[in-house]
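idk why but the lab printer keeps eating my pages so im just putting this in chat instead. protein + 2-acetamido-2-deoxy-beta-D-glucopyranose:
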Amino acid sequence: MLGSVVFQGPCKGPIAFLIKGVLKAPTDPALFLTDHWISFQFIDQLVVKGGGSLDGQGSSAWPYNDCFKNPHCKPLPVTMRFDFITNSRVHHLKSFNSKNSHFNLFACNNMNMSNIRITAPAHSPNTDGIHIGTSTNIKISRSLIGTGDDCISMVAGSQNIDITDVSCGPGHGFSVGSLGKSHNEEYVTGITIRNCTLSNTDNGLRIKTWAPSLPTVASGFTFEDIMMNNVLNPIIIDQQYCPSPNCDNNAYSQVQIRNVTFKNIWGVSSSKVAVNLKCSGSVPCENIKLVDINLAYKGGGGPATSLCSNVKGQSSGRENPPGCI
Ligand SMILES: *[C@@H]1O[C@H](CO)[C@@H](O)[C@H](O)[C@H]1NC(C)=O
Ligand SMILES: *[C@@H]1O[C@H](CO)[C@@H](O)[C@H](O)[C@H]1NC(C)=O
Ligand SMILES: *[C@@H]1O[C@H](CO)[C@@H](O)[C@H](O)[C@H]1NC(C)=O
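predcted complex ->
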């Protein structure tokens, strides 16, 4: 049993933390005075490894999560936070039933995560697998992520993120955004997701921006060699994202999405609209490429379809569903 801890630099490694066995978090969220359970800050050359497990014991805390209706909610603690961590590696760790996100990276540079196993039930609220913001040169590989929210989410300032050999599901898939909520958001650029599988997720590859929004840019993404296994929205750009009830459907996002390639994406969509590119009416998406898309829908009422609005780009190679750009 471990209470909330912070390991704070500045210090320069190499420093290795070995986690073996199972660490359990306190069940009562009121015992956490911080936004995390285990946190590392301002460390260069950190290694966290060891094959052990982090048990966030979230199930008793999830009912306290009212963030979907209360904008001033107190967030539950993240299982493991990395803030201002550079030239570091995290590998061979398991995390289950986090209270909030499992892993959160903020202001990190050159960090590799591999052989991570993340598990939480599909209904657990806000349990992102790995949440990344304001971080550069991050690689995530050879990992299994099944959770209640995004498997990997990348928000403002995520740059040069490389994701390979990750299997995701259940969960909300790989997600960029939501973008455009605050002033002067850092751009999101250079995201590659390759050789990954999504199974029974709500989304596959998603980019979402608020409407209305403030201006920013999301560009230079490659999504390649991805298998969709019963995914509700396999390919989705949603620039009209507004999950709350009082949304202005005529408001536009000002986030410019540019240079996005979806290549060799195949498998089964669990909804009829397998490709949904809903771009902004004020700054249309530019240079969107769909190459060799083969997504089937078997639910009846006809084959899979695609929907596009305000998209500039091109489709080529296999086009199932038929392209709409
Ligand atoms: C992360 O992986 C890349 C490519 O495998 C490697 O070049 C880089 O040095 C690694 N970084 C760290 C901190 O281990
Ligand atoms: C793709 O991922 C699978 C496991 O999901 C792995 O066995 C295979 O080596 C990967 N292929 C490449 C080219 O990385
Ligand atoms: C978009 O791609 C074009 C060429 O394909 C390149 O010239 C341009 O710099 C890219 N822009 C961004 C913002 O990535």
